[in-house]
Amino acid sequence: MFTATGSTGLYKAPFSKSLLIIPSALAFLLAVPFSQYKSLFMYNLHTIKQEFQIWRLICGRFICLDLTDAFCSSLLIYNFRIFERRYGSRKFASFLLCSWVFSALFDTLLVEALHYACDVKVDVLPSGLLAPVFALFVPFYCSIPRVQVTQVLGQFAITNKSLVYLVGLQLLTSSSFMWIIALSGLTSGMLYHKNIFKTQHVIFIPNWVARCGSYTLEPLFSTAEPTLESAVGMGATLDIQRQQRMDRLDQQVLLSQLPQMRRNTQQQGGLLNWNRFFPSLRQRRNGNHQADPRPAQNNPANPPQVSEEQVARLMEMGFSRVDALEALRASNNDINVATNFLLQR
């Protein structure tokens, strides 16, 4: 779908943060202190067509007038920031711009089709940056792997994507005509994702605009990634939480090694070499005492080398580099076990 554009916005996602803060702040201002101006920002198709008010089209499709819709769309944008980290801010913004333009056209076509087919006249649609949010469900469904987290009643699987779909369902059912916005957004997202009619080359963010946005947004909304964890002075609660997380990881690693243990047991005539399958998964540090600076002589085995490719894959899913390194080292470079651990922590 996209091509990577370097490290810009790889884990900072400044454009996603701006979409979280600016529309939410404007929605709050129009809902509480300036509610008398709400009518100026309604997504009124009849007024837009009759009076050709382009400014109303832009405002009505950017600012949410319903705080529930604003909250749900903000949650979804926060989860979809993974695409900005994976493909770069310019490609992510190009996707949103293309889906915004095409969904505006599809909104009009669907409303007209509904009027002629069912004699249902729709003048006002839900306002806000909703159609591009629904469009992001297309790459979310096609690109993000589905990892089972748990099961409910032994039959219904809960995955890492279930919560996102539930929030999308809540947004879909928040208004009687939200399905029009959702359908136009999904259609425009599919057009861009499949590059139908060369849409990726028709509507995009120019390089000079991307550079200007980088100089403007990154200083405001970017945050540095933590590089090292504190080895000493760790709080008791945090220490307990880390210990519980790593204990759960130990269980998952041992379960993943169980088939190999059984095969080796059969090859060795029923004798089980426990020391081979229960190595020290990590060098655990005591949060209340400083680590011994001298190298350990009783444990000559070196920690496993972490694959940078697997680290990059975990960072593309939205995890920090520190967590990815920790999980891969503890899981002996098993990316499936590391992913499950990071999702369940």
Automatic annotation (TrEMBL):
Membrane spanning residue stretches: 18-34, 54-80, 92-112, 124-142, 163-186
Q: Does the keyword Protein transport apply?
A: no
Domain of life according to the entry: Eukaryota
Chain ranges of the UBA domain: 305-345
Disordered as annotated region, ranges: 284-307
Q: Where in the cell is it found?
A: Membrane
Keywords of this entry: Membrane, Transmembrane, Transmembrane helix
How does the record classify its membrane topology?
Answer: Multi-pass membrane protein
Which Pfam families does the entry link to? Answer: UBA
Principal localisation: membrane
Q: Which InterPro entries does this one have?
A: Rhomboid-like_sf, UBA, UBA-like_sf, UBA_UBAC2
Q: Specify the protein name.
A: Ubiquitin-associated domain-containing protein 2-like
